[in-house]
Write a structure and sequence with these properties.
The protein contains four helices and no strands. By secondary structure, the protein is mainly α. The protein is elongated.
Length: 67
């Protein structure tokens, strides 16, 4: 992933130039690419939640009796 981000940052001047030609802006902003770790963090959270097992003291039995 670092090599992809590095490559994109090296090409950012070119991308900025193309963007400036396509988008009607007074000034084209500087472009900087960063790695996004949120997808990996979301997968980790999904695994943690999937690994949870209901216990007797979690109130699940109480909810069934009330219905």
């Amino acid at each position: 992933m670092d090599s992809v981000v590095s490559g994109l940052n090296r090409a950012s001047r070119f991308i900025r130039g193309r963007l400036g030609k396509e988008v009607d802006l007074r000034n084209t902003p500087t472009i900087r690419f960063l790695a996004d770790g949120s997808f990996a963090e979301g997968q980790r959270m999904d695994r943690l939640l999937a690994s949870l097992k209901p216990t007797a003291d979690d109130g699940a039995e109480d909810n069934e009796q009330e219905e």
